[in-house]
Design a protein that fits this description.
Distance between the termini: 83 Å
Keywords: ATP-binding, Kinase, Membrane, Nucleotide-binding, Serine/threonine-protein kinase, Transferase, Transmembrane, Transmembrane helix
InterPro entries: Kinase-like_dom_sf, Prot_kinase_dom, Protein_kinase_ATP_BS, Ser-Thr/Tyr_kinase_cat_dom, Ser/Thr_kinase_AS
CATH topology of the largest domain: Transferase(Phosphotransferase), domain 1
CATH class of the largest domain: Mainly Alpha
Protein name: Protein kinase domain-containing protein
Strand content: 5-15%
Number of strands: 12
Family: Belongs to the protein kinase superfamily.
Structural class: alpha+beta
Organism: Nyssa sinensis
Order of helices and strands: HHEHEEEHEEHHEEEEEHEHHHHH
């Protein structure tokens, strides 16, 4: 009789346990559904906002690394009217032309407040010029270093695109190493100390782009004409129209069409289109050779075997006797053998055919610092880590 009474009681207990389990499972299922629904709403809202933001920008080139130009006041840039810049440059008169880039003429100008500026007037035609304009505004509004040319503002008036920079009284390095006949540049022979200081400051500009920005910025058109000199011959790196964001991965590359200037383009980039910070290091090495030799990177008028600067100089850079044969005659008596050997060794490492054998720009800076007697104190440079958010979808 007792066992018969126990059976219904056990049955009821099992029933209660099953009910509790069912309730718990149902509660968990409802909670999971609520979490999933909340997450769905969050994602939908985020996507909706992103779509609205994309609709606000008029940026047709999906292949660019940089987002469209945002409100200028957010970036600390001044927006000029075409009339202001027309007046500042004397109506863009020929007498005020101080340079000619791949995408337009550069004019000397004076603003109403008395500031001297350089104004780049972009060529009317060409999608490439339009892209350069966008890249320079977006990039230079974010980068801040005493070794980069500062962008003060811009003008975007219908099809007329203009960029306004700090004025650099002594123009480009190239003009001083070998002045172009018929140009407005004033010829000057740069002494050894000045050349070393220019080499260091240009290296610091590239070091900032490669080491202080995430992801790194690859200049892609580093050359002597894009190193500008102020009234005291201090150097700043300029012209970022072809700049590209590099890979986040150590030793990684980005694939892109080959752009740059003959004689400065790294061999692996020219062959494969694989671009890395080491491509800039190669270009820097070519500039260092220009400072040592006073020769242009490619000169077909030279004797056989001497037309390409890197090919001619590289075998001589590590030979104590031969290195003196490549030195610019204008520098005779200004340098010590020890200094020449050290700078030649740096140049030889930078122009190595294999990218992996080239040094980092930080190493180049460290090697040059002891050789430069009077250089600007190292300034604090702002870092830029927000480029991840500025990339547009790749085509």
């Amino acid at each position: 009789m007792v066992s018969g009474a126990m059976e219904p009681e056990n049955y009821k207990r099992k029933e209660r346990i099953a009910l509790v389990v069912i309730v718990v499972l149902a509660s968990l299922a409802v909670a999971s559904l609520l979490v999933a629904f909340s997450y769905y709403c969050y994602i939908s809202n985020k996507v909706s906002k992103r779509s609205k933001n994309r609709k606000r920008v008029d940026y047709e080139d999906k292949g660019s690394d940089f987002a469209n130009i945002q409100v200028a006041t957010e970036k600390g840039l001044q927006v000029f009217t075409f009339k202001q810049l027309h007046s500042a440059t004397g109506g863009f008169g020929k007498s005020n032309v101080i340079g000619h880039g791949g995408f337009g003429l550069v004019y000397r100008g004076v603003l109403q407040d008395g500031r001297k500026v350089a104004v780049k007037l972009m060529d009317q035609a060409g999608k490439q010029g339009e892209e350069e304009f966008k890249v320079e505004v977006e990039l230079l509004s974010r980068l801040h270093s005493p070794y980069l040319l500062a962008l003060l503002g811009y003008c975007s008036d219908n099809n007329r695109k203009l960029l306004v920079y700090d004025f650099m009284a002594n123009g480009g390095l190239q003009e001083h190493l070998y002045p172009i006949s018929g140009s407005n540049a004033v010829s000057s022979e740069l002494d050894w100390e000045t050349r070393l200081r220019i080499a260091l400051e240009a290296a610091k500009g590239l070091e900032y782009l490669h080491e202080h920005v995430s992801p790194p910025v690859i200049h892609r058109d580093f050359k002597s004409s894009n190193i500008l000199l102020d009234r005291n011959y201090h150097a700043k790196v300029s012209d970022f129209g072809l700049a590209k964001l590099g890979s986040d991965k150590a030793g990684g590359h980005v694939s892109t069409r080959v752009l740059g200037t003959q004689g400065y383009v790294a061999p692996e980039y020219a062959l494969t289109g694989h671009l890395t910070t080491k491509s800039d290091v190669y270009s820097y090495g070519v500039v260092l050779l220009e400072l040592l030799t006073g020769r242009v990177p490619v000169d077909m008028k030279r004797a056989p075997g001497e037309a390409v600067l890197v090919s001619w100089a590289l075998p001589r850079l590590t030979d104590r006797e031969k290195v003196l044969q490549i030195m610019d005659p204008a520098l005779e008596g200004q340098y010590s053998m020890k200094e020449v050997i050290q700078v030649a060794a740096i140049a030889a490492m930078c122009v190595q055919p294999e990218a992996d054998y080239r040094p980092l720009m930080a190493d180049v800076v460290q090697s040059l610092v002891p050789l430069v007697k009077h250089h600007r104190p190292t300034s604090k440079v702002g870092s830029c880590s927000s480029f991840h958010a500025t990339r547009s979808p790749k085509a």
